[in-house]
Write a structure and sequence with these properties.
The protein has a single domain, classed as 434 Repressor (Amino-terminal Domain), CATH 1.10.260.40. Helices cover 54% and strands 9% of the residues. The protein has five helices and two strands. The protein is globular and about 40 Å long. The two termini are 12 Å apart. One of its GO terms (molecular function) is DNA binding.
Length: 70
């Protein structure tokens, strides 16, 4: 998939554990893991905004487009 989720990178930069972010966002750690591993099919803008607020970052810090070479 050409969209890469760098949530684990931002968590490491902020020295925050997934469990802590899940509590802040009021989601289950399992649901956060689905997003973190790139298995999610989409993300709501309000969820993305909440993640950015909690991690003090921009959406581009979390989501990255990587062009697939054929």
């Amino acid at each position: 998939m050409p969209i890469v989720v760098n949530l684990d990178v931002m968590l490491a930069k902020r020295k925050m554990q997934s469990k802590e972010l899940a509590e802040i966002l009021d989601v289950t750690p399992a649901n956060l893991s689905i997003l973190k591993t790139g298995k999610a099919k989409g993300i709501r803008f309000d969820s993305l905004a909440a993640i950015c607020k909690a991690l003090n970052c921009q959406p581009g810090d979390i989501l990255e487009f990587v062009d697939e070479v054929d």
